[in-house]
Amino acid sequence: MNTLPLDLLARLSKERASRCARAGTEPAPLRLPVPQGLNAPLGHDAVGVDAVYGERIRRSLPRVGCIYAQRSTWWWLVPAQAEIGLDWRPVADYSVGALIAPERGDGDLPRLLHLPKDTVPYTHPLLLYIAACRAVGVEPVWSKP
Fold first, then answer.
1. d(CA 56, CA 136)
2. CA–CA separation, 85 and 2 (whole Å)
3. What pTM, to 2 d.p., does this model score?
4. Which of 77, 82, 97 minimizes the C-alpha distance to 9?
5. How high is the pLDDT of residue 145?
6. For labelling, which of 31, 79, 107, 124 has a CA lying 20 to 30 Å from the CA of 96?
7. Inter-axis angle of helices 125-136 and 51-60, to 10 degrees?
8. In this structure, are residues 106 and 70 in contact, taking their beta carbons and an 8 Å threshold?
């Protein structure tokens, strides 16, 4: 049986409560998987960026990990706790544990859009954050208030 560390469970619970409060409903979340053959020793979270900016962000990064695509969002796998010290809200949705809500009217699971050439599924979170801020035209914020 797989068990989750207590700190991850607390983060997941907090994130779920926050998402439910914003949405007013409780959708059944999906967990973006680490594709078979890749190694994620740090755990994984996901960063969701509006699909309009996805290709621009991808081209600006020196190395890209796994990217999943939904109808209106590209989800980038990052190491767990990559939200610490960064305010993702102006540019992206941060998902603890890579738990995402299915889009309304989208019965399909998010599809794997990009698979890295090596065995590491992560995109560097700081570089992703800077690229996302640049694409959206928002000044990066380096620490949460």
1. 10
2. 29
3. 0.78
4. 97
5. 54
6. 107
7. 120
8. yes
